[in-house]
Structures are given as structure tokens and as C-alpha cells.
Amino acid sequence: MYNFEYKNPVKIIFGKGQIAKLRGELPQNQKILLLYGGGSIFRNGVYDQVKSALEGFPMLEFGGIEANPTYETCMKAVEVVRQEKVGFILAVGGGSVLDAAKFIAAAAMFEGSDPWDILTGKYSQPIAKAIPIGTVLTLPATGSEMNGNSVISRKSTTEKLAFSSPVVMPRFSVLDPECIFSLPDRQVANGVADAFVHVMEQYLTFPVNAPLQDRLAEGILLTLIEEGPKILAFRNDYEAAANFMWSATMALNGLIGQGVPQDWATHGIGHELTAFHGIDHGRTLAIVLPGVMKSMRAQKEAKILQYGERIWGIASGTIPERIDQAIARTVDFFESLGIPTRLPDYEVGSETIDRICQRFEVRKSRLGEHGDIDFRVVRAILEDRL
Amino acid sequence: MYNFEYKNPVKIIFGKGQIAKLRGELPQNQKILLLYGGGSIFRNGVYDQVKSALEGFPMLEFGGIEANPTYETCMKAVEVVRQEKVGFILAVGGGSVLDAAKFIAAAAMFEGSDPWDILTGKYSQPIAKAIPIGTVLTLPATGSEMNGNSVISRKSTTEKLAFSSPVVMPRFSVLDPECIFSLPDRQVANGVADAFVHVMEQYLTFPVNAPLQDRLAEGILLTLIEEGPKILAFRNDYEAAANFMWSATMALNGLIGQGVPQDWATHGIGHELTAFHGIDHGRTLAIVLPGVMKSMRAQKEAKILQYGERIWGIASGTIPERIDQAIARTVDFFESLGIPTRLPDYEVGSETIDRICQRFEVRKSRLGEHGDIDFRVVRAILEDRL
User: Does B306 touch chain A (CB under 8 A)?
Assistant: First the structure.
């Protein structure tokens, strides 16, 4: 096990009927910005529950945060935050709204000249402060409710970049599994795939003798495999919704990745597919991961075998056969959720692969737990998905 | 899964050589009280590492905290804290020193009349404030490094009582697995048993459809079973020490118990064995747990069967046979660590059982996840251990 430092002070308020507890968590003397997306919170009743909990608090609203939230929209919200002297941001929605809230919170108090530098990393200082944030999560997937991560897209340059800072970790997050009841199949499936790949990226690397971290990761994978299909089959299964929701949070609250190598290549490559073609984030991960497993099968051999055996019960066959089976079962799982896993399913062809590889070549990116995934390997990974 | 609220802001600094990082974690302008126990930190070099990290900080020392820390000793430290206007307590040691630090921190700022009421629960308000605490853990066992729990004994009345409060959670805890290298077998074995039983008390109740919590718990149990014997066989196995240390912390940082029933009967009864006979805490748990499993086998049936199968591979036989086997394997595990599990092994007989049961009768205690363990059941549990 590697040395590590871990601190996660986010307060989780979990369960049905918990949105009413917002009242006790919000600051009394601050103007609150209620941030949300495209309107699903009006249809599922969450908006009404939140408004009722906030009665009497000084508040204004900013709606219209997109899936894959844009820098352009976020900067409009930053204007509002500054002009109205907002003291607290309450993000109500899925990972996109939460990620937007984090960027807005940091950008509003940013001390550099260009807030885009929060994402490019060109600003040399760590982010010093941010407007405090609370969240009401309506879509389990990204783990944003219990971490300091945020991913923002810039329309003008088709870029999708991430930042992470402890100062934008939510003060609290309300997780009511009943929010899942009104989600379309596509969003449930995307959320399951997103959480599943988050775990894989902290698990499927190389062994460093960290058996507890392995088992925590495997526990989340097994639970997602069990519970995901139950929710797709019957949307109002509260127990399955609760187990999925808690699994998605645990998948990316930092805990399972402590003291072990990580490989975020799937996210790195997947972001480009969203940037160029607007493919749902969860789907890009389901497309890319099998390619990463195939191209990096030598480097990841020991962990792919362990994954195959403990998750899918693959205990016999030669090593290459067992690896092939583990990859095939992973693909089958995504497809069983209704997620196509090949680029042509999304009308993406070799031209996009060229453009993505060019970007990685220009950026001199080297992804993976060994830093050995350069633009050539990215090409192999994506061509495998044609 | 039940509704829950969870927040754990303790910063964990984990790994070899990490004690030097203390400098960056301590307040600059506060007088620091270095709190420790009987002197093992002088023999294992931890005292020197801490002193070197603290060079230049205003500091005083208070040593002599006992295993099973006493109210009497703690109140002497409270005097020092008040007189010297201590602003931060750095606890260096095992669970006893950490638990003492929490009580001292709360007692020094207690607003009621008698600090003992922090433990009896007679003070009607929640504990409002405490001197901030940091810890350097030298003995994995209690999980005190990442929770707000504390257990204190009172010599004058042979009582052993617990309290829990978020205000006494450490600001940070340094966990250096190399501290384990100098521990005697007995303390390693006790620590493994303590952590094991912490998990069992949050796991071995009744199913509430919380598969992730179950798997997290099982992951810790399996890791303790694997790693404990390795450390006993070869004390300087850093990897095994690290895995044990992180498992013991994860066993009682609150996470695995969220949203599920809990049963702290083993601790409740075990504390009495320590109060009357001074038996090591970890050993009392290894004595009592098999009795709890036997007496509560009907109520715990589903989870005992799951535990037997997933932890010990017991997959065949009638239900009573499988339960018997699961209990037998648990006993064998404790005994394999060198921990005797029957009362006569500690020269404890039926007279003590009478005294303990009388206490539970007077207190009208009802332990267990169903609140159905009264003094009569406590008698059955303890008589089983004769």
C-alpha cells in the first residue's frame, strides 16, 4: 500500500424524506443561489420540496445548467453570484449541476485573471477559496456530491476539462433515493456505467498489496451489477435505488482509491468523445473501458484476472482466455443496461479517432497508471471500439 | 437500508515516515499538550519522532495514561489543561490514550457541574465544545483515531462508561504502520480481535437489504483474518501491518454501520469483564462474542449463515449445523491469535456472572439490535462462556 492522506468532510444526509432537513443545514444570514438544470426537478417534485424547505430564506434562482455544463453558462452564473452577493450555492440536480456549482463557487472568488485557468491548471496557486456549496442529488452517477471534482466544457473551443479542490467539496449533500423513480432508463443506465467505471479506474491497475481497497472496490462493483438491472426493471424499487445511490457515492468519494495506483485513461479519452460528439458521459466510458482493458491487458493482467474471478466467477481457462472473458463480460454488462459500446453505434468513425489522437499528441498526454498510454495507444484503444 | 446521516472530517495521514508531517498540522499559536501512556513510545522511537516534529512549538507533556484510562487520571490532566491554558491536545499512543484525550478535551470545556456526567449521560445537553485534538496512533485496534468515541473507567466505582460526540473527533490522525513492529504479540492479537468484533457488531444483526454495507464489512473481516496471522508470524511485515492498521480504522469510523442495525451487546458485556477483572478489552470481546452468537442465533440466523458462507466458506449442512460451524470458526480464529475465549481461562467464574447480571438488572439495560438482551440473556451468554 502506498502512503496517503485522506479527508472527506462532506455531510451525507441519506434517505427518503430527507430534503426537508435542508432547513437545518443552510446558513441563516446569507443569500442562497438555487442552481439547477433543465427542468426535471420541476417534474419530479424535488423543486417543490426544496422551495418548501427553504421558505423564509433569502434566495434567488439560476436554472438552465446543461448536461456537460459549459463554461459559458457558468460564467453567467458567476456574474449573478457577484452582483447579488450570493453567500451560498445550493445545487439541485445531477452531476452536471453539482460540477457547475463547484466551478461557479471557485470562479466567483478566483484571484487570478482568467477563471478558465482554474481548469487549464495554468494558474500556479492552489484554489484558495470558494463560495460554500450544498447539494440535493437527483441522479446517482458522478460522485460529485461527496468529492471536490468538477468537469466543465467550453463550447467555443470544444474542450472538456476537469479540476479538483478541497475548497469546493459540498458542506452537505442530501441523497433521496426516491429521486430515481422519475429518471428515464437512459439516465439510470448511464449512472450505473459511470459509477462502475469510477471503481474500475481505481481498481484495475496493478497489485500493491492493498486487499482491503480491492475488496471495497469489488463490493461496489458487485452491488452495481446486482442493483442496476433491478431499477431498470422496476423504477420504484426503493431498496435497489438506495443501494445504487450509495454505491455511486462510494465509488468516487476518494476512499477506495487511497493508497493504490489509479488509471483515469478511460475518463480522459471519454471526455473527448463528449467534447466532439456530445455523447453522454456514462456511455463514453462504456465505449472506452473495454478498449483500455484490451490494449493494456499485459500491464493489468493480475488485476484483470482477479476482477474476472471475484466479479464474474471466471476461474478456469488459460490466462489469455480468462482476460478475454473478463472483457467480454464487462461489455455484456454495459450492453445489458442498454448502452451500446462501439463507436459506430454512435455514428463515430475513424475521422474522430484522428482528431482525438492529434489532441493527445499535441498535449503530449500520457495516461494510465504507468503513464504509458500516449496518442498511439489511444489510437489502438479507440480503433478496437470501431 | 435505513435513512442515515454521516460526516467524518478526520484527516488521515497514513504511511511510513508520516509522523514528520505533524508540523504542518498543528496550530501555530496554541500551547500543545503532548499526551501519552506508559512509556512504549519511548522504546519504539515514536516519542523522539514526535518531539523532533514539534521543535519550536510551545508544548508541555502529560504521561501515564493507563490502558483502560481512568477518570481519576484524566481529571489530573484536565487540571493541567485549564491551568496552562492548553489550546491543542496531541495524543500519542493507542486507543486508551486517544480515548483519554477526548474525555480530557471535553471535560476541560464542560459547561455542566460534574464532568462525570459526560459519561453517564445525565447532563441533558449535547457536548458543545472541546479542546481540538490530533493523534499519532501507535496501536491499531479501537478506531478511536477516526471517530468521536471514548471509553473511560472510574476506579472508585469500578465503572466503565462510553460517550460519543462529533466535537471530540480528531482534526487529524497520523497512522504509521511501522509502529506495529515493536508491539508484543498480545497487543497485536488484541487489536485484531477488537477490530474484528467492531465489524461484527455492525454486521451480524438482521438483513435490511444493504448489500454494499455487508460487503464492506465482510471485506474488513477477510482482511483481518488474512493479515493478522502474518503480523504475528513476522512482526516487521510492513505490508501486513499497513493492511491491518487501515482495516482497524475502517472497522470503526462509522462508515460500515450507516443505514444498518447495530448490536453493541458484546462491548456492553465485555466492558464489565474489564471493569471487574481488568481483562484486556480485546480479549473480553473474544470471550463474549461467541456467547452472543449462540444465545441470539435465532434472531441473527440469516446474517450468521451469510457470515459463515462468505467469511469461512461454510456452504453445506443443515442450518443449525452451519450456525454451529460459524461460531466454532470464530472461536478458532480468536484462539489461533493466542486469545483464550472462555471465562475460566481468566479465572473468572459464576460469582462474577452474578455481579454483572445484577448490574444489568439494576440498570434495566436492554442490549442488542432488537433491545431483547436483558440481564437474563446476559446470564445465558456468559454461562455459555464458562
Answer: no
